[in-house]
Amino acid sequence: MIKLVATDLKMQFEHRTLFEAKHLHFCQGDVVHLRGDNGSGKSTLMKILAGIQTPTQGKIEAQGFQPGPWWRSDSLLGKALYLHQHPYLYDGSVEYNMTYALPAPLREQPDIKQRISESILHAELGHLLQQNATLLSGGERQRLAIARAYIMQPKLLMLDEPTSNMDKDSQQLVLNMIAKLKHQGTGLLISSHQSCELTQLCHQEWKIAQQQITTSANVTSSYQPLSTIASSQSEQTKQEQQYVSAN
Ligand SMILES: Nc1ncnc2c1ncn2[C@@H]1O[C@H](COP(=O)(O)OP(=O)(O)OP(=O)(O)O)[C@@H](O)[C@H]1O
Ligand SMILES: [Mg+2]
């Protein structure tokens, strides 16, 4: 079983304790809503679990992953993919970000073209393929970042406020993509300070309040995402169809 296990975790900035947690585990197949007020530490916790930031105290173990190269064998980096609240994109076209800017081993996988085509369809980015990614709106950037995650198919994915900045239609697209990742068994940790359709996909909740992270099981929602994916696929744009047939 692929998982991250955090024990005796504590994060402080100078003398301010942000949060503590005795034990957290995030596994493939988990779909967790991470909630907490603004400034409670949701993004910081995700960055710690992604190996981007070091906690003040505690141990985080990655279990069940394929051994990496020796110089990264102890590193958490790359184990769980963290999608930033304000995604970083490469200076190049949307198409470039979704193809050449992917990690090299991934570009060599046999089904990569199919996954790229699917992600363009699901994120409805076909009409923006030639636009410079740095010129995208906030919502479009997040759609592109999630489309990239969809292509990369990580075992564990952390999404930081993935539908902030988004109108209803974009929210629905992202919801469908995340539901598809859930269906494929990707472990998902989704931060959002409020409950919404997206958090209805979750069956666990982690809450940061009064400097403590508490975990609880949540009621599973009856939301059925895959039918909406089918309908959005049938409404693909001409550019998307062209991309798929050309590749
Ligand atoms: N490097 C740092 N040095 C000092 N304080 C920091 C640092 N990084 C974050 N903080 C503080 O830690 C707190 C938690 O930040 P974080 O971004 O994790 O909160 P959040 O729960 O994600 O908030 P939001 O809901 O607004 O996204 C904030 O008060 C922030 O100012
Ligand atoms: Mg945040």
Task: Give the tags.
9 strands, globular, binds magnesium ion, binds adenosine-5'-triphosphate, alpha/beta, Rossmann fold, 247 residues
Bound molecules: adenosine-5'-triphosphate, magnesium ion
Report how far the terminal alpha carbons are from each other.
Answer: 35 Å
One letter per element, helices H and strands E, the order comes to: EEEHEEHHHHEHEEEHH
From the alpha carbons, calculate the radius of gyration and give it in angstroms.
18 Å
**Helix/strand-derived class?**
alpha/beta
Determine and state the CATH class: Alpha Beta
Largest sheet: 6 strands, mixed
Strands, count: 9
Going across the major beta sheet, what is the strand order? 5-6-7-3-8-9
Please work out how many helical segments DSSP would assign: 8
| pLDDT < 50 stretches | 221-247
Number of domains: 1
- Provide the β-strand percentage band: 25-35%
- Helical percent range? 25-40%
CATH topology: Rossmann fold
Description:
The chain has 247 residues and is of the alpha/beta class. It has a single domain, classed as Rossmann fold. 32% of the residues lie in helices and 25% in strands. The protein has 8 helices and 9 strands. It has helices spanning 42-49, 94-98, 104-107, 112-123, 138-152, 168-183, 226-234, 238-246; strands at 3-13, 16-27, 31-36, 57-63, 80-83, 156-160, 187-191, 204-209, 212-217. The chain has a 6-stranded mixed sheet, sandwiched between helices. It has a 3-stranded antiparallel sheet with strand order 2-1-4, with no helix packed on it. Helix 6 (168-183) links the parallel strand 6 (156-160) and strand 7. Helix 4 packs antiparallel against helix 5 (138-152). It is globular, with a radius of gyration of 18 Å. It starts with a strand and ends with a helix. The structure holds adenosine-5'-triphosphate and magnesium ion (MG). The site of adenosine-5'-triphosphate has 12 residues, from helix 1. Keywords: ATP-binding, Nucleotide-binding, Transport. Belongs to the ABC transporter superfamily. GO terms for molecular function: ATP binding; ATP hydrolysis activity. This is ABC transporter. InterPro entries: AAA+_ATPase, ABC_transporter-like_ATP-bd, ABC_transporter-like_CS, Metal_Ion_Import_ABC, P-loop_NTPase.
